[in-house]
Fold DNA topoisomerase.
Amino acid sequence: MDVLFEAQFSTLADSGRVFSKCGKCLRYLKYISARPSRLYCGTCEEVYYLPQKGTIKLFKELTCPLDNFELLIISMPGPEGKSFPLCPYCYNSPPFEGIDTLFGGTQSGSSVKPGKGAGMPCSLCPHPTCRHSLVTQGVCACPECSGTLVLDPVSAPKWRLNCNKCNCFVMLPQGAHRIATTQERCSECDSAIIQVDFNKKTTPLEDGATLYVGCILCDELLHSLVEVKHGKSFFKGLGTRGRGRGTRRGGFRGRELPSGKRIDPKMSFRDF
């Protein structure tokens, strides 16, 4: 019977193609594209489920500082599809309390079927020092839900901010050589200050200057160069509309203005 079964079906270890490195044994994981798409480590004999939509690529061979797994980039199809990095291990076993209940984990014992739920991508990770986490790449609160707009690391030259909960995204100044977040905070709205390196041929700055630093909500120049849109997201439909409706228990709120503070219309995306 075993011989007959092996003749008809291939084992998991023989399936898929070599993809990224396992953080436990440092051997290569195999990517199995058949649904549910997943990574399999033949040495550790463990399976790591992945998002079931979009394309999956290595993220510059960078590794997660928590578990040493190589990071992946998930890109949704189409010109308005979002991209976000994730660690296979953190996505399946979120290391921070509350993340696995925010969207439903893929761990055993969860009510979500394996491969169907959403774990913890880097855009939800509260790691304080990782340069790909929500803490370092988050810019400001989403205008559509309780999420946070996070810088898309692979969106150049069409730079953008993606909400880590809903399908809202914000187009940043186009054609810039580089856009990055800084550790500075806006004194008016507490959003992260971003640094923009404009193209010399299309720079809006006087005297041909290219480097500019400011807040996309409060700075008049940057605010005039951004545009709010909606696109394809892996988390589509999971965010709640309206910034005042709160979040699910154990979740992380987007950065919002202090309560009781009057809001200047130019400092928000309202009526954009």
In short: The CA atoms of residues 105 and 114 lie 9 Å apart. The chain has two domains: 1-49, 50-267. Residues 2-8 form the longest helix (7 residues).
